[in-house]
Each structure stands twice: as structure tokens, then as C-alpha cells.
User: What shape does this take?
Amino acid sequence: MLFREDLFPDILPGIALLSFYEFSQFVKNKGIKVNIWLGYAAIILLVSNRYAPFFDNFNFLILFVVVISLIELFRNNGSAIYNLGGTLLGVLYLGLFASSLVGIREFYPAVDGLYYRGGYIIISVLFRFGCVIRRLTMAVRL
Assistant: This one.
């Protein structure tokens, strides 16, 4: 089936990957060369692990830190510490945020229409966050 009723599992990883790419372009202006492909792989694994858990997130993040550290050790591309920090910050910030959105979405079971309440929670949290940000920016102007 080409079009499904629930597009959230298809759209969220794409948004997370685009956000990681945008983050990598921002830090590139500071001279930090993020390891794009390992970051993409880590974000896809973190988000897909929320739908069908096949590993523990803590163990995965420890393994990812070890692997990315070993790769940065032999990659001769600028400062290894800055590159490592940029990659880890992007993966932790964007990957864990996206997987948390999936966790909120999957909070309710798929029984009797309860499943869509997770989506309502996400919408209400994002709306409330937007209202708080708007109030703060208006207070700064005054």
C-alpha cells in the first residue's frame, strides 16, 4: 500500500536526518567537521529502535562513542575533539529528541482509538512550547 493512514513513522526519521544535516552545516562554519554518515546511521538506529526495540539505548550510545572515537583517532580532518564533540552533540540532541517523540507517540496502545492520543500529546506539547517562546520574545521586546 503506497499511502498509509499513519505517516508519522515515515516522516519523523526524515525530519531528524534533515535536522542533523542542518546542524552539521551550522557547525561547519565554526571549522568543525561532523562525521555525517555515522551520525545518520546512529539517528536512524535510535529512531527505529523505539518502534521495534532490538537493543538497549545506553549500550548503543556507549558503543557509538567508542566507534566514533576510534574513527576520529585516524581521521586527519581538523581537530579530532571538535569533530567528535560536534558529531556526538548532533546525535544526542537530535537523535534522542526524535526517538523521544516516537516514545511519546507510542505511549498508548493501539486499542480502541487510544493510539492517536499520543499524537495529540505531541501536538499539545509543541503548541504550549510555542506559546511560551512567543511570550518570552514579546517580553524581551517590551
Notes: The longest helix spans residues 80-105.
